[in-house]
Design goal:
Elements lengths: L3 E2 L4 E5 L6 E7 L9 H11 L17 E4 L1 E2 L2 E2 L4 E6 L21 H8 L15 H19 L2 E9 L2 E2 L10 H4 L9 H16 L6 E8 L13 H10 L4 E6 L10 H4 L3 E4 L2 E4 L7 E2 L2 E2 L4 E7 L9 E4 L5 E4 L10 H26 L1
Antiparallel strand pairs: 1-2, 2-3, 3-7, 4-7, 5-6, 8-9, 8-10, 10-16, 11-16, 12-13, 14-15, 17-18
Helix pairs in contact: 1-3, 1-8, 3-8, 6-8
C-alpha cells in the first residue's frame, strides 16, 4: 500500500485511527530553514477533533513532536520525522463493526484487498491519517511563504445546498475564514451551514459540502507536461483526501456551458509580465502555472459512518441492522480546510523543487 506522495518533496504518512500515534516523514525539505513545532501546530489545531460543536466529539490535543531533521531550530536537509500521539482512543466502539462492513466506508474494500484490516475507526482509511499530511503541508507552506511569498487559503464554499458568496476570492485571508466555526467567510451562509450541521448531528446523520482554495503569488512555469501537469498533481493530491468525490479548477464544469469566446482569458501587460484579464483557466494553462491565482474546489461526500439504523449485511452475507457507534464528524468540510491547504502546499513545494533541478 503506497503511503508516499511527491518526487522532490516527498511525504510518507503512517499510523491508524486508534494506534499509539500517527505522523509523517518529510524528505527533501531544503536545509537551513527555521522550523520548530510552533510552525506546525496552528494548522494541526485547525484540523484537530473536538474543536467545535460541528465536529466529532473525539477530544485530541494533537501536539506534534519533531523527532529528527532539525537542530537548534533549523532544518538539516535530512528527513524530518514528525509524531502526534493518539490519546483519546476507544477501539471498543468498533467491536460490532468488526464483522459488518459500514455502507460506503472502506471496510469491505480493505478487507477484500488485503485479507485483513484495522477494524477500529477505519485504520488508514480514517481521516486521522491526514495529521501527517497537515504536518508536512505546514512545513511546505513555510518554505513557500518564506522563499517566494506564496499564500494558500481554503474555505468552506458550501454545505449541502447552502452556498457562500465571496465577492473576491483572490483576496480572502485565514482570519476571515476562521471567524466562524464552519470556516466560511460569508457570515450569513455560515450561520445557516452551522445550523444545518448541528441539526444533522442531532439526527445522527451526515451531510457533505465543497471546499474552495486559492493559491496566490505562484510563479509562472510550475508543472511538468504531459502527465504531471500542475492541475493533475493537485487533483491527485485532493482526491487522495478521505471523503473526497470531486475536483474542479478555474471555471470547472461551469466552463462547459460557455463558448470559447466567453471562456478564453485575454492577455494584458501587468507591470513587467503578461497576465490575464479573466481567470477561467484557474491559474494554469497547458498544465503549467501562468502567474495568476490558482483557484480550485474539492467536493466532500457526507461521512459514511452515521448513527442511524441501516439495513445491510455482514461479511458472511447475513442481513443485519447496523447502528454505528464511535465519534464522527457530521460534516467534514470545516476540519478539511487545513488538509486541503496542506496538500496544495506539498504539491507546490514539490513543483518548485523540481523546477530548481531543471534550471
Amino acid at each position: 500500500m503506497s503511503s508516499t506522495f511527491g518526487s522532490a518533496y516527498r511525504v510518507v504518512t503512517s499510523g491508524e485511527s486508534h494506534c499509539k500515534g500517527v505522523g509523517a516523514i518529510v524528505d527533501g525539505c531544503p536545509p537551513g530553514m527555521e522550523l520548530t513545532e510552533a510552525d506546525i501546530q496552528p494548522q494541526l489545531d485547525r484540523r484537530r477533533p473536538g474543536q467545535s460543536a460541528v465536529s466529532t466529539d473525539r477530544n485530541e490535543s494533537d501536539q506534534v513532536v519533531i523527532q529528527s531533521g532539525t537542530e537548534n531550530g533549523k532544518t538539516l536537509g535530512t528527513p524530518i520525522s514528525l509524531f502526534v500521539p493518539n490519546k483519546d482512543q476507544r477501539p471498543g466502539d468498533y467491536s460490532e463493526m468488526a464483522t459488518i462492513p459500514r455502507p460506503s466506508h472502506a471496510d469491505y474494500t480493505y478487507q477484500m484487498k488485503y485479507g485483513i484490516r484495522a477494524s477500529s475507526g477505519g485504520g488508514r482509511s480514517s481521516a486521522r491519517e491526514t495529521i501527517g499530511r497537515v504536518c508536512a503541508g505546514a512545513i511546505a507552506e513555510k518554505f513557500l511563504g518564506d522563499q517566494f511569498g506564496i499564500e494558500i487559503v481554503a474555505w468552506v464554499h458550501s454545505v449541502s445546498d447552502i452556498v457562500s458568496q465571496v465577492p473576491d476570492m483572490t483576496m480572502i485571508n485565514r482570519s476571515e475564514v476562521d471567524q466562524t466555526i464552519i470556516r466560511c467567510p460569508d457570515l450569513k451562509a455560515a450561520a445557516e451551514m452551522e445550523a444545518l450541521v448541528m441539526k444533522t448531528k442531532e439526527e445522527k446523520d451526515s451531510v457533505g459540502g465543497v471546499v474552495s482554495c486559492v493559491c496566490r503569488n505562484v510563479m509562472t512555469g510550475l508543472g511538468e507536461p504531459v502527465f504531471d501537469k500542475l492541475e493533475a498533481m493537485l487533483a491527485q493530491a485532493m482526491l487522495s483526501i478521505p471523503a473526497t468525490k470531486g475536483f474542479e479548477i478555474g471555471s470547472g464544469f461551469a466552463g462547459t456551458r460557455m463558448k470559447g469566446s466567453e471562456h478564453n482569458d485575454p492577455f494584458v501587460l501587468k507591470g513587467k509580465r503578461l497576465g490575464t484579464i479573466t481567470n477561467n483557466s484557474g491559474g494554469i494553462q497547458g498544465g503549467i502555472s501562468n502567474g495568476e491565482p490558482i483557484i480550485f474546489r474539492v467536493a466532500f461526500k457526507p461521512p459514511a459512518t452515521i448513527g442511524l439504523p441501516q439495513q445491510t449485511v455482514d461479511f458472511e452475507g447475513k442481513e443485519t441492522t447496523l447502528e454505528a457507534k464511535g465519534r464522527h464528524d457530521p460534516c467534514v468540510v470545516a476540519r478539511a480546510i487545513p488538509i486541503v491547504e496542506g496538500m496544495a502546499a506539498i504539491v507546490l513545494a514539490d513543483c518548485v523543487l523540481l523546477q530548481r533541478r531543471v534550471f
